[in-house]
Each structure stands twice: as C-alpha cells, then as structure tokens.
Amino acid sequence: MTKLDTHRAELVACARCPRLVRFRTEVTGTKKAFAGDVYWSRPVPGFGDAKARVVLVGLAPAPHGSNRTGRMFTGDGTDGMGSSDFLMRALHATGFANRDSSVRADDGLALTDLWMTAAVRCAPPDNKPAPDEVANCAPWLDRELALLPRVRVVVALGKLAFDRLVLSFGARGAEIPRPRPKFAHGAEVRLGGAFPVLLATYHPSRQNTQTGKLSPGMLADVFRQAARIASDRGRVSGG
After folding, report:
1. Beta strand extents in 66-150 (DSSP E only)
2. How many Å apart are CA 12 and CA 72, to the nearest integer?
3. Residues 18, 23, 209, 141: is their CA dihedral positive or negative?
4. Integer Cα distance of 108 and 139 in angstroms
C-alpha cells in the first residue's frame, strides 16, 4: 500500500464535521434522476496521476455528483452542462484527460500529469461549507499535496480554494507576495523556492458557465498556462 493509499483510507473514514456527515447521507435519493443509485456518501478522495505536475483544487463535492459517484468532478449533471462536464471538456482539449466527460467512477477516465482534489471533501448544503468545516478539512489537502512530489503548479477553481491555498502555502513558509494576492481569473502567484506556482480560475459552476462569465476557451487557456509553467519549471529543476 502506498502512502497515497493510506491517506485515502484514512480520509474516507473522516467524520469530523457533524453537519456535513448528516447532509452527505440525507441527500441520498432526493434527486429524481438518481433515485435508484447507491450513493458514496463519504469524504471524496483525490483522483488522477500520482506523478502529476499539475494539481487541480476545487471547492467541494456536489451532493449528487462526487458525493454520489465517489470520484472528484464526476456525475453532477444529466444534461451535459454540469461542472464536471464543462471541466472535462477543457481537460480533454488540453491533453490532461483521455475523455471529455466524467459520469461515473468506472467510465474509463484517466488523467495524465494531473491530480484532482478539493478544499472540502464532503458535500456541503447549498455548496457553502462553513469556515470551521474548511479549516477541519485543510490538513487533508496539505497532506495530499505533500504526497505528490512532482507538483509544479496548483490550479484553484474559485475563490475559496484560492484563499485556502494561499493560507496553506503561507503556513508552510512560502513567500506570499505583498499586497496579499487577490483572487482573479487567470491570476498567477509565484511563491518562491520549491513551492508550486498558484493559478486561479473561475469555478465551472452553472452560474458562471451559463452566464458566460467562464467560457470553454477561458478555462482551457488556464490549463494550457499550467502545462507551460509545469514544463518550464521541470526543465529548470531537471525533473
């Protein structure tokens, strides 16, 4: 068993946040399209290439997406317009994913040079984790990042993930620029030393994608930027 396997086993057994533990179970079967499905209803572990140079950090599992399927950014819609659908099309277009959709844990999706995870691992009501729940989950993310030794770039989907990562890297000794970095789509934050570069993008929520705030091209451009930085830093470090 690898250290990532051990991390996964310990993560999925976590029950530290009572509100999230209740909600992730109570939501089972409440959406007609998935009424007959057996839900995962546990903390959702990261997924992808353990040798990845790029890590994607989202907000939290969707109640009927990852909370149902047990895999990050998987199965949150039935019309091809969910966050996972929008994200996978961008990852496929930029060479990080072998498929342009992510519907269930056994659909054959494979990621190359990319690891997907989230700031919070249990589905929160209204997609809004409480500050104490974000803090409770922070050590899981910190530990997971430490177990991915080749990471050169971390992409934050949305402001909460971005702010959490700035705090996390700062606590670990990164050189946080002054004034403190603010979230903005396409923002790039250099943290100094061996720390990864932090990139930001709007979250591919329906609120952002269906209003045109985030287009397919905008999201794909961020992943192309991540790939370029990862390659450049790999050449400099010799790895």
Report:
1. 114-118
2. 13
3. positive
4. 30
Decide if 201 contacts 185 (C-beta within 8 A).
Answer: yes
Reading the chain (239 residues) residue by residue, the pLDDT tens digits are 899 999 999 999 999 999 999 999 999 989 999 988 999 999 999 999 999 999 999 999 999 999 999 999 999 877 767 899 999 999 999 999 999 999 999 999 999 999 999 999 999 999 999 999 999 999 999 999 999 999 999 999 999 999 999 999 999 999 999 999 999 999 999 998 889 999 999 999 999 999 999 999 999 999 999 999 999 875 545 45
Instruction: Please spell the DSSP secondary structure of 93-112, one letter per residue.
Output: HTTSBS-S---STTS---BS
Q: Which helix (H) or strand (E) holds 48?
A: strand 47-48
Domains belonging to the chain, first-starting first, are 3-237 (3.40.470.10)
Query: Are 123 and 63 in contact, with CB atoms under 8 Å apart?
Result: yes
Note if the bond before 129 is cis, omega within 30 degrees. no
Q: How many residues does the chain have?
A: 239
pTM for the structure as a whole:
0.94
* d(C-alpha 144, C-alpha 138), whole Å: 10
Identify residue 30 by its one-letter amino acid code.
Answer: T
